[in-house]
């Protein structure tokens, strides 16, 4: 147990205030700075008594933690001042000065924190390499650790790649010196709650939750009130204790001098209120704060015993900008295979021609397809894979908003990517065929805290049987978690997919074995994830047969519990769009239901060859107009608008809407609910519905039962997922309901303001995360206290009907309903309107 662990049990720990602010108050001149004007860190050598006096005043004011005067003392920053060779000395001297101040105070429970700033260059923007930045921190940590700091504070961070460089340098130097101290990381956010390079707080947590940090917090940037939203968001998702070190308000220039707009009383009151409200573990002052500020903050925190909140770690990966949970609802997490030299001829040709513009374009196009990550594979015989990885990663790191899954088994290539990738990526992959290579990849995964795909292969080859798959899974799990301390939630097991297109008997049962192993792995190791390369199942067949077999295989893999699929989702077909006979044959092939008289593969090939359809839409020219409309809507065929025009010559527009289109959309909802239609195809059906409605609009009556039913939609605060909400929007809009969608990450106050502005008849709250359910409770409680009693419909993967009934309805004066999807939300609205009409008539 560290010293800080004991102290934090009884009180909120108070840090000192702004070192720079205190130094400026001394009005130092060249006598103090000597040949290094304005270099605060050099004062550790030239004016140690002044720095010691500053520390002493903060200790007397009540600080539990004093930070060394080393904020800008990494080698790269000192190099700009021609002091690089004195980096370790300056940091060592800083700790000794702080120790002297503690000794003079006669207090034995004061901790000394080594202050480590971000420097002046951002590696995510290619202003400095990861390696150079990492090297520049090593002598700083050497001085701080040999000097004897109690903890290290990496603060005012604005780039996650810079944080990685600093944290890993600290770990490396601690290992070298055989010592260990707690690490605290603090980020600085803008008014939108993001780091300077655009990283969200959710992404920060995703990147660093597997690192061995003591605390994660926010410092600098703004005053306490301006940072409250960001503090609240961080506390809600933070798996570590939270630190909160704001400025003394907003800086203003008065008579050419910088002043902060909060006096010490207001600062102390605001900070202490936020600390207590959000269960912060460490607080203090940053820019503009003096011993007076710390003294009054300490006074406000007296006799307060904190209740430190730590949130459960959620398996996720992320780009530089945003996080992506590995647990998707509905499953699976989709990794696109189109940026893979073995999966895309176009991508491979562009790589061979060094046409990086096309390579970037292919990657950019993929993230528009509702994928969750991008599989990047660059290994090609005769090419320099390290060079290609360097070029591609440097560009994609800044341009992609979806996370990267890097596909290589070469440790040197993987390290090149990890030193240039700001987010948390997936390494694809490791196996036990070559133990030396596996050891290097495990080491990289544990060093950079990535997610890791583990192929079930050992020195005997690829695992075919269920027993062999489970044996290798156990071995890899033990090695990863026990020897390399990799978190189970960062492990992704691939039971392997073998082609059934070759007809080879040795592979006939492999799909069954892989499917069964998914559920077995999930049951034995509940924290890990599973993955399959879906399209491998159909290798060797023609493109249309591949779509059929891939689609059926994916459906059954997800039924077994598959979490992640590497697949080109544009080549996946909803099962309802595939003729039932072909589905049955594909199922028989996958589950090896063959006999001497029956070969499902040959039957599938023959049956498909005898078919003369060009798509799997099941639309026939002989169908009636109403059947054609229904088929086109279910299949997402935008030419439905032409059919609607024709239908209007014989059918009433209201009959088309009420008796053909709306029932067909209900069928789409049922197919989605049963897992027979994936989300992208539901959206296509919704687009077709929109096209049909546009044609019908001029022919429909101006008013209907739903036209007055305006609804306000919002994804609740802390949640940036909007696919489900957008689907609800489309379905409700296409049924004549006016929708005001105010977007994602919406606070209770913003929702109340929108209610007052738009005057809706209903409120719809959406949230994917489990935490979103608790946020809905706070929002509904807030709305109720502000005399809002409109019907509220809550939906999303983080909810269930019991929670809505027992936790939400019980605190709200109006009705609260659980809407599983857009179709159920539509029915809830209809029921409310019908009940209102009935009550009115009575």
In summary, what is this structure?
The chain has 842 residues and is of the alpha/beta class.
Structure overview:
The strands form 6 sheets. This protein has an 8-stranded parallel sheet. Strands 13-14-15-16-17-20-21-22 form an 8-stranded parallel barrel. The protein folds into 4 domains: 3-301, TIM Barrel (Alpha-Beta Barrel), CATH 3.20.20; 316-597, Dihydropteroate synthase-like (TIM Barrel), CATH 3.20.20.20; 625-699, Methionine synthase domain (Methyltransferase, Methionine Synthase (B12-binding Domains), Chain A, domain 1, Orthogonal Bundle); 711-841, Rossmann fold (3-Layer(aba) Sandwich), CATH 3.40.50.280. With 842 residues, the chain is an alpha/beta fold. It is built from 32 helices and 27 strands.
Mean pLDDT: 91
Strand content: 5-15%
Shape: globular
Name the poorly predicted regions. Answer: 612-622
Number of strands: 27
Supply the number of helical segments. Answer: 32
The CATH architecture of the largest domain comes to Alpha-Beta Barrel
Gyration radius (Cα, Å) is 30 Å
Distance between the termini: 70 Å
If strands are numbered along the chain, what order do they take across the biggest sheet? 1-10-7-6-5-4-3-2
Q: What's the structural blueprint in terms of helices and strands?
A:
Elements: H1 3-7, E1 13-14, H2 19-25, H3 30-33, H4 43-46, H5 48-61, E2 65-67, H6 75-79, H7 87-105, E3 111-116, H8 130-147, E4 151-157, H9 160-177, E5 183-187, H10 201-208, E6 215-219, H11 228-237, E7 242-245, E8 251-254, E9 257-260, H12 264-278, E10 282-283, H13 291-301, E11 316-318, E12 323-325, E13 333-336, H14 345-352, H15 356-366, E14 373-377, H16 385-399, E15 404-407, H17 411-418, E16 426-430, H18 435-448, E17 451-455, E18 457-458, E19 461-462, H19 466-483, E20 491-494, H20 510-524, E21 529-533, H21 543-559, E22 564-566, H22 580-590, H23 600-610, H24 625-634, H25 640-647, H26 653-673, H27 679-696, E23 711-715, H28 723-733, E24 739-741, H29 748-758, E25 762-766, H30 770-785, E26 792-795, H31 801-808, E27 816-818, H32 822-841
Parallel strand pairs: 1-10, 2-3, 3-4, 4-5, 5-6, 6-7, 7-10, 13-14, 13-22, 14-15, 15-16, 16-17, 17-20, 20-21, 21-22, 23-24, 23-25, 25-26, 26-27
Antiparallel strand pairs: 8-9, 11-12, 18-19
Helix pairs in contact: 5-7, 5-13, 7-8, 8-9, 12-13, 15-16, 16-17, 17-18, 19-20, 21-22, 22-23, 24-25, 24-26, 25-27, 26-27, 27-28, 28-32, 29-30
């Amino acid at each position: 147990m560290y010293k800080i662990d004991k102290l934090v049990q009884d009180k909120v720990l108070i840090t000192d205030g702004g070192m720079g602010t205190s130094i400026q108050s001394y009005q130092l001149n060249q006598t103090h700075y000597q040949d290094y004007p304005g270099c605060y860190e050099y004062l550790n050598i030239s004016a140690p008594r002044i720095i010691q006096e500053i520390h002493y005043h903060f200790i007397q004011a009540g600080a539990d933690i004093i930070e060394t005067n080393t904020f800008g003392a990494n080698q790269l920053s000192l190099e700009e001042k021609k002091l690089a060779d004195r980096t370790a000395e300056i940091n060592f001297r800083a700790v000794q000065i702080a120790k002297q101040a503690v000794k003079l105070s006669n207090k034995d429970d004061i901790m000394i924190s080594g202050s480590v700033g971000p420097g002046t260059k951002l590696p995510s923007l290619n202003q400095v390499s990861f390696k150079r930045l990492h090297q520049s921190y090593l002598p700083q940590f050497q001085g701080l650790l040999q000097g004897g700091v109690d903890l290290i504070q990496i603060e005012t961070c604005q780039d996650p790649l810079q944080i990685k460089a600093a944290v890993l340098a600290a770990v490396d130097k601690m290992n070298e010196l055989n010592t260990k101290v707690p690490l605290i990381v603090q980020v600085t956010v803008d008014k939108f709650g993001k780091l300077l390079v655009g990283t969200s707080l959710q992404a920060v947590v995703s990147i660093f939750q597997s690192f061995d940090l003591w605390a994660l917090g926010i410092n600098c940037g703004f005053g306490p009130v301006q940072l409250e939203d960001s503090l609240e968001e961080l506390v809600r998702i933070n798996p570590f204790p939270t630190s909160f070190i704001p400025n003394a308000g907003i800086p203003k220039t008065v008579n050419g001098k910088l002043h902060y707009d909060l006096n010490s009383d207001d600062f102390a009151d605001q900070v202490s209120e936020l600390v207590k409200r959000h269960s912060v573990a460490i607080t203090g002052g940053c820019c503009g704060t003096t011993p007076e500020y710390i003294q009054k903050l300490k006074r406000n925190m007296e006799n307060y015993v904190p209740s430190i909140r730590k949130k459960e770690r959620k398996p996720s990966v992320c780009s530089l900008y945003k996080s992506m949970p590995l647990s998707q609802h509905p499953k699976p997490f989709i990794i696109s295979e189109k940026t893979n030299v073995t999966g895309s001829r176009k991508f491979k040709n562009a790589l061979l021609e060094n046409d990086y513009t096309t390579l970037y374009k292919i990657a950019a196009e993929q993230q528009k397809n509702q994928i969750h990550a991008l599989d990047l594979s660059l290994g090609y015989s005769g090419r320099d894979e390290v060079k290609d990885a360097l070029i591609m990663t440097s560009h994609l790191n800044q341009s992609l908003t979806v996370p990267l899954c890097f596909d290589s088994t070469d440790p040197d290539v993987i390290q090149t990517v990890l030193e240039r990738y700001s987010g948390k990526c997936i390494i694809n992959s490791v196996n036990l065929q070559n133990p030396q290579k596996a050891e290097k990849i495990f080491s990289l995964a544990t060093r950079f805290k990535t997610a890791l795909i583990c192929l079930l292969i050992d020195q005997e080859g690829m695992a075919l049987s269920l027993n062999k798959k489970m044996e290798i899974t156990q071995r890899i799990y033990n090695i990863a978690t026990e020897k390399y301390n990799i978190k189970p939630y960062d492990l992704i097991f691939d039971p392997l997919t073998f082609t059934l297109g070759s007809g080879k008997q040795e592979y006939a049962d492999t799909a069954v074995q892989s499917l069964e192993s998914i559920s077995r792995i999930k049951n034995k190791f509940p924290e890990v994830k599973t993955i399959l390369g879906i399209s491998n199942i159909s290798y060797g067949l023609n493109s249309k047969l591949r779509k059929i077999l891939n689609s059926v295989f994916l459906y059954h893999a997800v039924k077994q519990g598959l979490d992640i699929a590497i697949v080109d989702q544009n080549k996946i077909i909803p099962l309802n769009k595939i003729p039932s006979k072909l589905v049955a044959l594909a199922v028989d092939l996958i589950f090896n239901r063959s006999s001497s008289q029956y070969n499902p593969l040959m039957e599938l090939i023959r049956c498909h060859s005898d078919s003369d359809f060009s798509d799997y839409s099941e639309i026939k020219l002989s169908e009636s107009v109403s059947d054609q409309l229904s088929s086109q809507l279910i299949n997402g065929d935008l030419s439905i608008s032409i059919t609607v025009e024709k239908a209007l010559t014989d059918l009433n527009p209201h009959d088309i809407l009420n008796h053909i289109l709306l029932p067909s959309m209900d069928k789409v909802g049922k197919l989605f609910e049963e897992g027979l239609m994936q989300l992208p195809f539901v959206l296509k059906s919704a687009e077709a519905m929109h096209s049909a409605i546009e044609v019908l609009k001029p022919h429909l009556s101006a008013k209907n039962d739903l036209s007055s039913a305006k609804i306000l939609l919002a994804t609740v605060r802390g949640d940036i997922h909007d696919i489900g909400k957008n689907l609800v929007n489309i379905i409700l809009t296409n049924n004549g309901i006016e929708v005001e969608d105010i977007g994602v990450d919406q606070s209770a106050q913003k929702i109340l303001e929108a209610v007052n502005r738009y005057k809706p008849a209903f409120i719809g709250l959406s949230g994917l995360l489990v935490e979103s359910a608790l946020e809905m409770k706070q929002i509904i409680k807030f709305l109720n206290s502000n005399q809002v009693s409109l019907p509220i419909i809550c939906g999303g993967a983080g909810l269930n009907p019991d929670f809505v009934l027992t936790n939400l309805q019980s605190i709200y004066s109006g009705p609260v309903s659980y809407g599983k999807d857009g179709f159920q939300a539509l029915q809830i609205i209809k029921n409310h309107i019908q009940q209102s009409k009935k009550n009115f008539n009575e």
